[in-house]
Every structure is written in C-alpha cells, then in structure tokens.
Structures
1.
Amino acid sequence: MEKKSPHILNASSNLLGFSLLIITSLKITKISGSTYLDEFAGMSCLLFACSCFFSFLAIRSKNKKRENKFETIADYLFLLALFCIVLAVIIVTIKII
C-alpha cells in the first residue's frame, strides 16, 4: 500500500494556513461573534494541526505497525477537519446569501 502520510502532511499544513486565514479575517471584520464560523474554523485548525503531527510521526516512525496506526489517526483527523471546513464554507455561503 502506498504511503499517504506525506500527502496528508502537505494537505493538512496548507489547509491549516487556510483555516488560520479564515479566523484572522473574522477577527478583523468583527463578525466572529454573530456566527459559529470561528468555532468551526478553530476546530479545523486544531484537527489539521493534530493531523500534521500524526502524519509527521508516521513518516518518522521505524515501526511499521506504529506507522500504520499514526497514518490512520492522521487520516481520520484530516477527514474531520475537512468536515469542519465544509461547515464553515456553508455558513459563509448562507451568510452572504
């Protein structure tokens, strides 16, 4: 099976930056108090950061069993973070319309 850890690390770190950009723009525009958008973006930041951490551990691990375990954890955290980002995008779309 092909290793997914480098791909997860790359995508997670990029989307972590995107999530931080969302939070920063919400704080600048002062609309973070009226929606749950900053909560979803904050949760996605935490999940993407944890996904980065576990994918890095999977890359650095010498034990194959531990590597697979870390990669699976990183994969599920990445999926949850994507779900939070999708919810944030839905909220932004509803707020604009």
2.
Amino acid sequence: MVTFTVEDHDGNRQNIEAPDDMGLSLMETLKAYEYPILATCGGMALCATCHVEVLEGDKELGNATDVELDQLENLPEYFPTSRLACQIRISPLLEGAVIKLRGEDN
C-alpha cells in the first residue's frame, strides 16, 4: 500500500491509501475515493479534466510526458508541477506525495 495526501478544491487535505500492485492510475484511485474528477476521456490523456498539481514529491514522479504536456498547455492555467492523474500509476514513487486537485469538478 502507498499513502499520499490529496488536497481538494477547497484546500482540505486527506491522507489516502492505494494498492500499488494493481496497476491503477491516480485518476482511478481518486475516483474510487469519490473525488470530483471528470476524466471525460476515460484516462486516455485526451481531455486534461484530471489535471492535478504535485505539490510535494514531483521529483520522484519525474517530468510530464509529451502527451501530457500537449493537453496541459491547452489549459487556461497550469503549473510547472502539473500532471494528468490518468498518466500517473500508483507506485511506491507516490509515497508521501501531496497532490492538489486542479481539474474541473463535477
């Protein structure tokens, strides 16, 4: 299990746990915890509605891919540590990270 913190649109933080042996994406995990993630494209990196900002732990996760950057650059606002939650796999690299929801909410 991996534990990381999620900050919602109102600034509230919650520690959540996710299994790191199922191949789940951060987007799928956030939806399972009932966070308001639209994920309109279903995790194909085509819509950027699962936009998150990695406040802590971004170095461990590495840089956004070109596919992610193509979507993020079309947003009205994105940050140097912005990522698409659908492109981040739950792994030990997320341990202790702080993720802020940035995408549109439902």
3.
Amino acid sequence: MSSQSATTQPVSVDRPEAAQAAFPERGVPQIGRVNRRGLWTLYMKEVRRFFKVQTQTIWAPALTTLLFLVIFTVAFGRSDREILGVNFATFVAPGLIAMGMMNNAFANSSFGLLVGKIQGTIVDYMMPPLSEAEMMVAIVGAAMTRAVLVGGAVALAMAFYPGVELSAEHPWAIAWFGLMGALMLSLAGLITSMWAEKFDHNAAVTNFIISPMTLLSGTFYTIHNLSPLFQGISRANPFFYVISGFRYGFLGQSDIGDAAHVLWASLGLLAFNAVLGYVTYRLLKSGWKIRS
C-alpha cells in the first residue's frame, strides 16, 4: 500500500469584498482629522434632547416673548407713538425676537455639561473620540439651532399681531446679527455650564447677568432717550449691538448709526465671538472644572 504524505498545505482563501470593507487593514486610521460622524452624533443628541420637550423649549419661550410684546404695547404703545419712524409695536418686535433667540441659546448650552456633572454622566461627553473643538462645535451648534427655531416661532406669532409690520430691509443683517447673538450666548452658556456646580449657579448667571444685559440693551427703547453717561454704558454692552443690528435688518435704521456703523458693529461682534470661542476652547482643553 502506497503511503501518502500526511502533511497538509495551508489553503489560501481570499476574503470577500464585504469582509474586507468591514475589517480594514491594520494601522489604517478610521477617523480622519475631523470625526464627522461623532460630531454629528453629539449634535443630534443635543438637538433631540431639547426637541423631545419642544413645548417647553421652543413654544413656551415663544409665547413668553409674545406676552412681552402684548404687555409693553398695551402699556406704552399709543397708536400715535413712533420710534425710528415706525409704530411702537413694530419697533419692539425685532428686539424681542433677538432677545428670545439669545436667551434660549444660553439656556440650551448651559444645561448639558452641568447636568452631566450633577448626575455623574459627564463621562458620556469625555469618553467618545471627540476633540474639544468637535465637542464645542456640536454643543454650540445645537444651542444655535434652538435659538433659530425659537426666533422663527416668535416671528411667526408676531406676523399675526395687530400693529406689527415686519419687512426685511436688509436680510444679511437679520441673518448675521441673529446668528452672532446666538453664537455669543451659546459660548457664554457653555462656559457657565463648565463653571457651575449646581443649578443655582446657572440661575444666578441667568438672573443677574444675562437677563439685565438683555433687557437694558435697547430692546424696548432707543438709547437716544438716555443721558450721555448711560448711552456710553449701553454702547459697552455687546447685547446692544445684537439687538440694534438685528433691528436694522428689519427697519433699515437703528441706534447704532448709519450703514457704515452697522458694518463695523458686525465686524466687532465677529471679533468678540472669535475671542470668546478661543477662551471656551482653551477652558475645554484644560478640563477646567470638568475633569477631576
């Protein structure tokens, strides 16, 4: 009987293309310089968080802002009273829209990290393969999304309010100052969320800093009625330029001045937000009051 060699030769089996796609070669990075999928996932998480309770986060703020319009037009808005060439209701409406956008941008971005620290789920933000810049963009982007939705809801409600006539004289100013205001308050909210250790800290910033600066920014009046001292104080308030620039987009005029002054104000807000964004990024990078 002839004996055959018992040794077996290894069989080379090519992997299917699907398997090769599912299991890439070792050492090949799967996340590029920007983790787009991770950034989008965190952004959608933040959006869905406030959208699940949209009655509280979008429609309730819109109703509250509309009540401001009702109260102030009834109390101060005589039918023959004009400010900047328009009736009182039309003058106040753009400022209220911008105010609602800024307040809700701050409320959204100042909530996420704070809740994570209190509930012990901050690791959900820190463990995923996201850079500090990507995390900041996702959180700030979600807060700005909420601001735009609230602004749209308020504008829609005011379009049906008697006496309000909103026309886009300068659409670029509406978009620019609205987004710059939302960005500014989103960044401020994120810094507050890092700093705060309990909800009282967050509420203190809202009640003693954000609300006064918003209400004293020319939302309900023109600063030309103030004394020179308080006019100077108002012009040192960045909220004033957001409100007045946003109003310029609707009415074609504002407390800032002519078109050249409005343009300089828009560039000033861009520079201010760039500095604020850099500070926010450095605080996130350092793990200030986040990492133990």
4.
Amino acid sequence: MPFWLLFAVFLYCGLCESEESDLGYGLNIGNAIDVFANYGDLSQVTQVVSADYEEDNPPHVEPFREKNIRVFLNASSRQSSGDTMVDMNILLCDTFDDLLATYFQNFRIEGTDKPWKAFLGDWILDEIMRAFGIEYDTKPDNCCYVLVKLTKVHKSVQMDDLRNVALKDYVKRAIESLNVSDPTDLRKFMKSYGTHYIDSYVTGNFIYQASTVFKYKRTGYNLLRAYIRQRNMRHSSSDNLRFYFSSYFLKQVGEIKIASGNKTVETWAKQNLRDSQYLYSRPSLLRLHYNPILAFKLNDLLGNGALLGLGLKTLRPLFKDQHKAKMFAEIVENDMKLWEVNV
C-alpha cells in the first residue's frame, strides 16, 4: 500500500478515535447535545421528576444520561458546593402550566420560553399529574396550585466565558465545510455535533408534595397568596401556614414525591410526615417546617440523585463567521418554536 494511503488511513482512524473519546453520557460542562434527539421526553435521560421503576431503587440512576460531545478544546468552569441543610420554598401557581413552569424554573434552554416542554411535552396529562402526585383531572386549569419544595443542593457548576476558548479540530473542519444555505446540511451538523452546549447545571435532590404539590380551591388559594405576601413583607416569626393548608381550604392534597425517584425516601416521608386534622390524616411536607428533628432526618436521607437545574446555550459561539452563526441560530430557534407548538 502506498505511503500516502497508509498515512490517510492513519489520520482517519486517529480522527475517529478522537471523536469517540470525546463522546460522553454524563454531565460534562461545555459539551454539546442535540436537544431534538429526545425533545418532549428529556426526562427519559435526565432525573428531574419522580418516576416509576420496576425496582424500588434501581442501581446507577444518574442525574443526566444524554449523549454529548466535547466541542471545546479548553473550556473551564467554576464549581460551588450546596447548602448542608434542606431549604423549603412555597410556590404559588395560577394554572397547571404555571405549575410546570415553576417546577422547571431553574432549567433554561436558549431559544424557548417553555423548557418544561422539552422534558415532559410528549407525556400525556395523566402521566404528568401522576408524576406530580395529584389525581387526574380533565380540566386542570379549573384549579390553582401550590408547590412546596424542600431542596438540598449538592453542587452547582457554571462554565467560564468563551473569550479564549478554542474548538476541537474536527468541529472546526465540520464548520468550514458546512453549507449554511442548505437546511438539510445544517440539520445533519446538528445531529452530529449538537444544537446546544451545557453552560451550567445543579445537582442534588428535592422532595415535593412529592417537592409538595397541593391542588387548591380558588378561594383558599387567594387567601393563602395574601397571607404569604403579608408574611414575606413583615418577616414575621408568627406562622399560621398549617391553618391555610387545612381541609377547609384544600380541594386535594398531593402525594409526597422525590425528584431522584428514591422509593425508600418516599416511603419514609409517607410514614413519618403525616398531619392529623379533625378526622383526616394525610402526608404533609409542612411537618418538616414545624419539626426540626424530622427535617434533620430527611436531610441525611437526601442524596445527589437528581438534576435540579440546567442551562443550555446554542452552539452559535462555535462560528467565527457571523453569517454562519446567524443562520445556524435561526434554524435552531425556528425548530425549537415548531417543536414547542407541536408536542
């Protein structure tokens, strides 16, 4: 075989090996993913909501399992550790869409205002409501909602700026040969090298009701909203939350769920976080608000099995040619809008 042909084969094999070694399935800051590969069901490859598994606690459930590729040669990031204790939030939602948007408020995908659709857009309503621990309702927007979350952050990672960041050689070559006037060629590039890169992420765990979800009668919801607003304004130590979460106001109390899907913790919560009022006894995360001992026990149980936040930015910075950058960004954002409407 001629020397030049041997050299070409060696070069090709080296390129393949380099690209293969740059492929991953975990949380790799700066790596690129194709959002459309699992759009509408990104929850299949990320641990963001409680899920039903065949086993109670299946092994090797990672917060992020989507295929990604290294496109930057020397990207750097900064990392910070989370709080040592859980943090409780009570979040008010006027509609079911608000509930979904609030749940995914720490998820940002450049090109869309509704990142939750990328994760749950393909789910039927019954599946979504079950994941939130509430009973199926054919008209969910006839009610208002309150989401109670107890969050424990393990770590937060943020990518540094891209001013001095270089590209991998095979990405450079792909961009140079890319015909941005051809949508088919652009979409082939997106499938090979992605649409967005991972700019930030947060891992940890949180419990919600199951984070806590309560489904409200409108009058009770308005009273609770007014109370929480006044409580936050005056920073009062007095606390009548339990009264506003009583059966007098509630239409339905959701089940307690955990984002990592850990059924052992869910079972512990259902057994230990019961609130008795009048003739009723039901699980309630508010028990943790009034019982520090239970809060400490839960804190020890929460691990690092869930994705709490994710920031995805388009691969526009890869393109030094501003025309190519604009054409690439336009087709990604247009496709995002189409997928958002159609899921």
